[in-house]
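Encode chain A's predicted structure.
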Amino acid sequence: MPDFTTFSVLFFTRKLNGNSKDVSIYTRITVNGKCSEMSLKRKISVNEWDSSKGRLRGSTPKIKKLNSYLDQVYSKLLDTHKNLLDKDSLITAAKIKASYLGLDEDHKTIKDIVAYHNEKMKDILKWGTLKNYHTTANYLEEFLKRKKKTDDIYLKHINYQFITEFEMYLRSYSPKKNRKTCGTNGTMKHLERLKKLLNLAIKLEWLEKNAFRSYSFKFEKNDRQFLTERELHMLEETIFTSESLERVKDMFLFSCYSGLSYIDLKELTTDQIVKGMDGKDWIYTKREKTQQSVKIPLLESAKDIIKRYQGYGLEDAKDVFPVISNQKINKYLKEIMQSIGVRKKITFHSARHTFATVVTLSNGVPIETVSKLLGHTKLSTTQIYARVLESKLSSDIANLDQKILNKKAR
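Encoded structure for chain A:
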């Protein structure tokens, strides 16, 4: 406990200027003989003030209302003093004033934690991840303005009701631009980021408890698309007259046979293609997303695509492929899939799923090996990609059936 402190609150008045008959009401907080004063922004006639009582004299409705306000201020200052004592905090008049005015650590706002997070994480998080936090912050700002009629909120005022109202706002948000509204998973991602911001506030001791402790996230399971073996071969055999489509097809196929994500393919250089312990070509790299080291032995299909682009005349001689933006690649992929009759929503990331599902797992590669090839830190992440194909089910059951028949025949 802190040392014993003397504490008092006094209300007094000061003249507004030399000639005015009006005075402004002030309060003086005194702790151990040291004072801190603040104006209460209330103006009265000098004749209405009773300095011996520290209150207004009279019984008009206006005077009763002002005296009631002074009682409230006095009560709040007492509560503020008590809260600081309960926290075993150093008590000063200035600290009580700051706490009362909401200028101390206990009165940090959502804008404070957003600004702190983005400043501290700008050199740690990837640009895309940080961009998502900015988007969440923009949604929060619009929610506060439209629904709460304010531009900020104290962290301690964020409760379960605030979270559910923000969720409903995200689900029903109508963007000005012609783009999709937030689906269930998009909404949950924004709420996850808000939860992480509040957890950071707790670590900084700006907040005592996280309002998300009673909230349950409700993600929808997406059936992530990938190419079947037949569709993969069909894509390989199709030659496009458009150089752009042919190039995007090659980039996609390379990812299907290596498991590289878009950003890792874009950053791939000739320095990262080395001879492994077996004397064959390997990719030695780090995943841009997680900085996890990845070592991938190159399949012949992947090596053939690399050879196709040797001497291509790339801007950087160390680049392996002429990779365009992810947005343009996905636009071209949509055209490619339509032209070969694949009616699935295929994006560049679908190549990674194709590698995990069709190229490796369905051909008997253990999931532990696939996890290493994909650069996952947890096996549970790989299980998202690990689909059991109908052909594999049929083959496994046929083998089981044959084993059972062989045992009966003995």
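Residues 168 and 307 are 52 Å apart (CA to CA).
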